[in-house]
């Protein structure tokens, strides 16, 4: 994915992660990649990855279990 670095990057990462969720890359109950992995995949900072995941979590698509990570919610 080519990111447009002239505008905020985290919404672009969040959009791509949503697209991948919609495509079924991760199903309900699956563990979602951690922010370190997401940051590496998109070549962004971990804080950028955290913002992208937080946006998706706020939509109710992910739930986070302390010490275990984020998981995909039922649609």
UniProtKB/TrEMBL annotation:
Keywords: DNA-binding, Transcription, Transcription regulation
CDD domains: WHTH_GntR
Source domain of life: Bacteria
Biological process, per Gene Ontology: negative regulation of DNA-templated transcription
Residue ranges of every copy of the HTH gntR-type domain listed in the record: 7-75
Keyword 4Fe-4S attached: no
InterPro entries: Bact_HTH_transcr_reg (IPR050679), Tscrpt_reg_HTH_GntR (IPR000524), WH-like_DNA-bd_sf (IPR036388), WH_DNA-bd_sf (IPR036390)
Keyword Transcription part of the UniProt annotation: yes
Gene3D superfamilies: Winged helix-like DNA-binding domain superfamily/Winged helix DNA-binding domain
SMART domains on file: HTH_GNTR
GO molecular function: DNA binding; DNA-binding transcription factor activity
PANTHER family: MANNOSYL-D-GLYCERATE TRANSPORT/METABOLISM SYSTEM REPRESSOR MNGR-RELATED, MANNOSYL-D-GLYCERATE TRANSPORT_METABOLISM SYSTEM REPRESSOR MNGR-RELATED
Name by which UniProt lists this protein: GntR family transcriptional regulator
Organism expressing this protein natively: Streptomyces tirandamycinicus
The organism's taxonomic lineage, starting at the top: Bacteria, Bacillati, Actinomycetota, Actinomycetes, Kitasatosporales
């Amino acid at each position: 994915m080519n990111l447009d670095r002239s505008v905020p990057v985290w919404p672009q990462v969040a959009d791509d992660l949503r697209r991948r969720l919609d495509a079924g890359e991760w199903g309900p109950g699956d563990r979602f990649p951690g922010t370190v992995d997401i940051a590496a995949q998109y070549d962004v900072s971990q804080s950028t990855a955290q913002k992208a995941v937080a946006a998706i979590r706020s939509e109710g698509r992910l739930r986070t279990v302390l010490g275990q990570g984020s998981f995909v919610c039922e649609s």
